[in-house]
Structure formats: C-alpha cells, structure tokens
C-alpha cells in the first residue's frame, strides 16, 4: 500500500508498515480462530494471580469462549492480582455462556448512573469473588468497543472479529489470549482521534500523558522504528487509515489522518453532518454533571448514588459481638475492600471511640471521670423521692435519663441513615447494632428500670423504649455475630470487660439468634485475615 510522504523535516528511512490488514477480518468471519497458535506463548513475569482468575479463564477455554484481553501486559499483572481492571473483549454470541460461567463462580454485575464516562452500550462491570483471599476480580467486559468523546462513546468500531491477531500468555498453566501490539495501537489511535486537539499548523500530535499507558508493547520492532499506518475496515466495507510515527520518545499521529478517521467512523455508523458539535456539547454537559455530582458526594457522603453499586442494590451489614472480637478492625477492613470498586460506607452505632455527635462526645469527655459516682447516686435514690439524698440522686437520675435519650436519638439517626444509604445503592458496614431485648448490654436501652416509676423521668424512659422499638423494626439485611471465648477478648483488650459481662453478652446474642434464624455466627478466635475472609464470604453471597 502506498503512503503519502511525510511532512518536511521528518526523516523516515524505511517504508511505512501497515497495521491491521483487512484480510484477517475475512478469516475471523469464516470462523477460524484468530489466536496465533504457531507463535510460542509470550513470556510473562511471575504473576500473583488470584485463584479465581485462573479458574475463570480455564472455564472460558474449556467452553470454547471467544474472548481476549485488550490491555497491555504491564497492567495485566495487576488485573490478575485483583488490584486493577481486566479489559475483556467478548464475542456477542458467547454472552449467554459468559453469564452462565460467571454466575457459577458467584459473580455479580454492577450498575452506574448514566452521567459517568464508563457507561455505554456493550460494556458491563462484572466482579468475581476470591473467597480464600478475601478479594474480588474486576472484569471490564466489552461486547464491542465504542469510541468517541470521554462522556460520549457512541460509535462502535471494534468487536471480536475486528481484532486481526491474538497472542497468548500462560499464567499458572492456563493460556490467556491478549490483543497483539498492532491491534492495541489501532484501538488506541481510534480512541485518541476523538479526544485530541491541536493547533491548525501542527502536522503531528504526540500521544502523551495517560494515553502512553494504553500500550506497553510498541507495534514495530526496535529496528523498524519509524512510520506506520493503522488500517481500519469499518461498516459497509469502508476503509480508513491513520499514519503514526513511532520513536524511542513515544508515538505521534498525523492530525489530518485523525480528522479523516473521525469522519469515516461517524459516517460508517450512520452519523453525518454536524454530529461533531453535538458530541462535544453532550460530552460537556455530561462531564459538568459528573464533576458536580462527584463534588457533592465528597461534601455530602451517602446523599447521592455511588459510581458503582450491585445490580441487586445496596444493603446494610451489622457486625455484633462483645468487646475484643475485632468488630471495628473488621469493619474498617471490609470497607476498604468493597470501596475499591463499589459504593461503600461505614456506620458506628456505639458510644466509644468511633464517630458520633459532637455534643454527645463532648459531654461524654466531661462526665466520663464521674460516671461511677453518678450511677451510684442514681441507683441509691431508688423510688424514695422524699429522701435526704433526693436532690443529688434525683439530679443524677435525671442526667442519666437525658443522657440515655440522647444516645438513643443518635443511634436512631445512624440506623435511619444507614438504611437511606442502602436504598441509594451503598454497601453499609455497621460496627454494632442496637437491640431492644435487654437493657444495658449490646447497645440496648440504658435507662435504669427503677426510673420508670419516678415521676417526670418515666416519660424519658418510655421515649427511649419507643426509639429502640423503632430501631428493632429497621433490621439490617445481614447480621453477623462474632463469638469467641473470654480468653480471646482478654488477650486482645486486657481489662476492657469482665467475664460476667462478657458471658451476659454472649447469652443475649444466643437469644437474639433464637429469635432471628437469619443471623449468622463467625468464630472470632481465628486471625484477622481468616475472620475477614469469612466475613467477606457471607457479605458477598448476600448480594
């Protein structure tokens, strides 16, 4: 194929190399596998791949699925390890088989608001859990690759048959097809064509910034660096091409060729006329909405739906257990794991060192040194309102009653907020959860029973009871009880709780499980990693 001469000042000693010949498309249409079986498997450094990734690709190969990874090898390592996305291109005819395989592996799909840049037809986010490691794999699955502005990807250009050549890598004995460097550069240039701008007198545009990360393997060998041509076979047999210049410093594309490529892609997809201006306008409107929404999400967390949420919607998870069972540690750990890709929030329902109302925390700091004396005075007062100590004891009892109502109001607000977050699609991990069965234990009511008969204070006591009854009606979708021996609690938090109080909490938890058979029990005596993996399993299977 003849190529126009370069602009003056650019020296190209070798003829341009064509990338993406159309003859391979016919081979794909004929049903012949496009993987280069004659070539040896590409070497890949030792990858700490998740076992679920190996199991997934082995199932794909055994079922004869037509698929391939469309990303560079550098990020592929992180993707297999569950630390980055895996960009997967799938033949649309194999989509039902794909869904069947990932469903058997407990995979789930997420949904996003339409204002985000990753929302377009033919693209889905799938997640597969790796229970032994307490992590999950992210599949960025494409039935077809669409190009366009960042928030206006409307032009389908590439499908599985449009990839001219697949290479293979071997990970733990499993062969995984990856896109060839030539096709990788074709995809990158087609995407770059819609998202670049240059001054009119510039003939070559440098593909720099984040675009350099799109390809790690140069399409031309080091000895053949120079001019190349990316060829495209579009709909209706339309042909398009774009010259690119490869050097040791990076990649440059011809500005005029990029403009012609944009027009050809639009025309091949049935869009003619002033659609370039329309695309820019829609992109600007959606990006403005996106930036405004992200800013509001930072200012008011949980008020708006997250970027990604499970297709089945959000839900509330409560971790309940005595002191020393690792509730706060596991809540922090689970929040970090799920927040990697999903909308996830953490709620604290206790009155310890966690988050809470500033008024309650300030009062708690002031009163904490005198708490035992106040409780003793309130208990000593009893029902004898005419005793000499009534002025001190009655005041202490009233203070305790107001304090209990303040705590109940705070917990009620946290419970309602957790459920509001869940309705917006967030996974809410709650450290503790209030119960109305027994007073004084497991974040239950705290008003002493004898105050119900004290005139004036009985109103506060009944108000607290009603608040806890309302909270009992707002149960979490999943409750996990962390149980263990007292020795474990004493080892982790020495002197935090007495054995009698510890046994009372375990007994109350057993009574709660008798009333609600859906509560699940986790052995908290194991290590942090083992307990976290078990919690991760229960939460994931509840999606």
UniProtKB/TrEMBL annotation:
Keyword terms, alphabetized: Membrane, Transmembrane, Transmembrane helix
InterPro entries recorded: P-loop_NTPase (IPR027417)
Membrane-spanning parts: 393-414
Protein name: Thymidylate kinase
Keyword Transmembrane helix: yes
């Amino acid at each position: 194929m003849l190529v126009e001469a370069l602009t003056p000042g650019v020296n190209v000693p070798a003829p341009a190399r064509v990338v993406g010949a159309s003859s391979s498309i016919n081979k794909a249409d004929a049903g012949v596998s496009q993987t280069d079986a004659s070539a040896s498997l590409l070497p890949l450094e030792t990858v700490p791949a998740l076992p679920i990734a190996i199991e997934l690709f082995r199932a794909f190969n055994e079922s004869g699925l037509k698929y391939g990874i469309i990303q560079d090898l550098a990020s592929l390592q992180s993707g297999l390890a569950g630390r980055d996305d895996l960009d997967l291109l799938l033949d649309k005819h194999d989509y039902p088989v794909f869904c069947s395989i990932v469903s058997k592996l407990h995979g789930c799909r997420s949904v996003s608001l339409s204002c985000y840049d990753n929302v377009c037809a033919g693209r889905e986010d799938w997640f597969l859990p790796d229970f032994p490691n307490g992590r999950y794999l992210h599949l960025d699955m494409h039935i077809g690759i669409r190009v366009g502005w960042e928030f206006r990807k409307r032009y389908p250009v590439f499908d599985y048959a449009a990839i001219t050549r697949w290479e293979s890598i071997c990970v733990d004995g499993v062969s995984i097809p990856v896109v060839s460097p030539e096709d990788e550069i074709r995809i990158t240039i087609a995407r770059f064509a819609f998202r670049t701008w240059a001054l009119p007198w510039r003939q070559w545009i440098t593909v720099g910034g984040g675009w350099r990360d799109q390809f790690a393997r140069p399409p031309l060998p080091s000895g053949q660096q120079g001019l190349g041509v990316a060829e495209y076979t579009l709909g209706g047999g339309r042909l398009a091409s774009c010259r690119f210049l490869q050097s040791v410093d990076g990649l440059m594309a011809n500005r005029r060729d990029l403009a012609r490529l944009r027009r050809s892609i639009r025309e091949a997809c049935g869009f003619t006329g002033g659609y370039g201006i329309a695309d820019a306008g829609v992109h600007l409107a959606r990006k403005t909405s996106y930036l405004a929404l992200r800013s509001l999400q930072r200012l008011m967390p949980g008020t708006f739906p997250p970027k990604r949420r499970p297709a089945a919607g959000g839900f509330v998870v409560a971790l309940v257990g005595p002191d020393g069972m690792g509730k706060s540690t596991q809540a922090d750990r689970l929040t970090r794991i799920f927040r990697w890709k999903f909308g996830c929030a953490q709620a604290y329902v206790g009155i310890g060192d966690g988050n809470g109302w500033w008024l309650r925390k300030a009062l708690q700091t002031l009163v904490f040194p005198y708490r035992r004396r106040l409780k003793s005075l309130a208990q000593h007062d009893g029902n004898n309102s005419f005793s000499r100590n009534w002025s001190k004891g009655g005041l202490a009892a009233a203070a305790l009653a107001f304090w209990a109502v303040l705590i109940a109001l705070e917990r009620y607000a946290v419970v309602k907020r957790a459920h509001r977050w869940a309705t917006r699609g967030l996974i809410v991990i709650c450290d503790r959860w209030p119960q109305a069965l027994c007073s004084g234990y497991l974040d239950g009511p705290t008003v002493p029973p004898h105050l119900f008969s004290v005139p004036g204070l009985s109103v506060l006591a009944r108000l607290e009871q009603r608040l806890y009854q309302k909270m009992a009606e707002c149960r979490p979708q999943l409750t996990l009880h962390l149980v263990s021996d007292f020795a474990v609690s004493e080892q982790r938090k020495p002197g935090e709780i007495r054995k009698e109080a510890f046994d009372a909490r375990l007994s109350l938890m057993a009574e709660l499980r008798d009333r609600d058979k859906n509560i699940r029990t986790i052995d908290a005596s194991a290590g942090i990693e083992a307990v976290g993996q078990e919690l991760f399993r229960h939460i994931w299977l509840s999606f």
